[in-house]
Design goal:
467 residues, mainly beta, 7-stranded mixed sheet, 4-stranded antiparallel sheet, 13% helix
């Protein structure tokens, strides 16, 4: 490794770190110290996991059981995460599943592979890792391309495709230009052959990498795995639940509090104090007190702090982020009697500034983060009379102008809430519940607004607020 680093043109090396079909099962030289040494020497690592293979693959010993494809994909991700951590590969490392070529005319086989990979990707996200996929262009890659646009399919974050044409590029007509972009592709462009550098000969494949880290979510990641989550209160009990996100859906909920029925408003928007944990604000109905619940490891809360009284006169209490640009997060709220919006400056929230009147015409307000990418935090509001969505771009502590970003009728939705960059594509997203059915939808952000709602799950009628 030292000789090749000093003499070869290569900067990255693939390491087969696990999987039941891995050729050299022991690999005693692959240790956490070896990984640390190679990183220190300047090598980039491509972690490859050679696990269960397609049912119609005839060259490997262990295969996916179509009847258990989802559970096996999840189990393989669990194993891969453990092995990666043992080697010192941390959060957001891309773990690439090596799915060798398989029959291209077996629809049941394709379905099993896609179900397996969907579960693999979702589970890796829950565990704080990113998903990669390696296969031949004609089989596995073809099937991933065909499944990519499925609204509830968790496609891999990075694609590593094999096409031995000797051309070092990640562009290929078989892969749409909008898929796995930007910087999410690897191409294996030459198969096994000997190369000698500095007098050391190794048999290698050649790969061309165009990769970079995924965008991070600005807020909404309560459990710290890198992906935005959803919170909700069960109205019948007052229990507060965390629904961990994985970029495509929500994992099983976890109770993180009880007794929240005494609160008439619950507000969420990232890390208010800057300690690395997401905080919550809640208004106590009987007193009008506003309480801040600091986040803690594991998704729980530390000791709460009171921020003044009299908050029962306000509606649409909203965490906005750092609207003033002073490095401290702020709140905005609408005075019910006048429709006037006020800015409450962080960190103590004792100083308030009037931002304008007419806000009683809005019946949903959410802090969206820096939606227009100008470096300042923004606000989204729904107009009561029309159901239109408006973007209020922040500018120096005020909202000088607004832009209509959706003319679709959002009136039938409740709990229209920003959740950060849910799928980590660089655009900020929202969720909302359809009041008539209790179904939840996610709305993926675009450069100008939001795409059509994507069905998340049912059963949200007894939960409020959802945020």
């Amino acid at each position: 490794m030292q000789t090749w680093r000093a003499n070869s043109p290569y900067l990255a090396v693939g390491i087969y770190f696990g999987g039941v079909n891995r050729f050299c099962s022991a690999q005693p030289n692959l240790t956490a110290q070896w990984v640390a040494d190679q990183r220190a020497a300047g090598w980039h690592l491509m972690p490859l996991y050679l696990g269960l293979q397609a049912p119609c693959n005839t060259t490997k010993h262990f295969h996916i059981d179509p009847a258990q494809a989802a559970s096996q994909g999840r189990a393989e991700a669990d194993d891969a995460a453990i092995r990666a951590k043992d080697l010192g590969l941390g959060r957001d490392s891309v773990l690439i599943f090596d799915m060798e070529g398989y029959a291209t005319n077996d629809t049941a086989c394709t379905a099993a592979v896609n179900m397996f990979m969907d579960a693999w990707t979702r589970r890796l996200h829950e565990l704080g890792f990113l998903s990669g996929f390696y296969s031949s262009l004609a089989s596995g890659v073809r099937d991933q391309v065909n499944a990519y646009a499925g609204v509830n399919y968790a496609h891999p974050d990075h694609l590593d495709f094999a096409r031995w044409d000797g051309v070092p590029t990640t562009l290929d007509p078989a892969i749409p230009s909008s898929y796995w972009t930007p910087h999410r592709r690897i191409k294996q462009y030459q198969g096994g052959h000997d190369e000698t550098w500095g007098g050391v000969t190794i048999n290698i494949d050649n790969d061309y990498l165009d990769v970079s880290p995924l965008p991070t979510t600005e807020f909404g990641d309560r459990n710290g795995n890198g992906w935005s989550d959803v919170l909700a209160r069960l109205s019948s009990t007052g229990n507060l639940y965390l629904y961990p996100g994985n970029g495509t859906g929500l994992a099983n909920r976890v109770q993180i509090g009880n007794g929240w029925n005494v609160m008439s408003a619950i507000v969420r928007h990232g890390d208010f104090t800057g300690d690395g944990f997401e905080d919550l604000f809640a208004r106590e109905a009987s007193t009008g007190y506003l309480w801040r619940y600091p986040g803690a490891a594991g998704g729980g809360f530390g000791a709460r702090t009171r921020h003044g009284a009299g908050w029962n006169t306000m509606r649409e209490i909203t965490a906005i982020g750092d609207l003033t640009g002073d490095g401290r997060n702020d709140l905005v709220a609408v005075e019910t009697s006048t429709g006037r919006m006020y800015l409450y400056r962080g960190p103590d929230l004792t100083t308030r500034i009037a931002l304008g009147v007419g806000w009683n015409t809005m019946n949903e307000v959410t802090g969206i983060g820096d939606f227009d990418r100008d470096g300042q935090t923004d606000l989204i509001a729904r107009e009561k009379a029309t159901g239109n969505l408006w973007l209020y771009p922040g500018e120096g502590g005020i909202f000088p102008a607004r832009t209509k970003i959706s003319t679709a009728n959002w009136s039938g939705l409740r709990d229209v809430s920003a959740v950060g960059d849910f799928n980590r594509d660089g655009f900020l997203d929202m969720v909302a519940v359809l009041t008539s059915t209790g179904n939840m939808y996610r709305y993926l952000g675009t450069s100008t607004g939001f795409a059509s709602g994507i069905y998340f799950s049912a059963g949200w009628s007894g939960l409020a607020p959802v945020l």
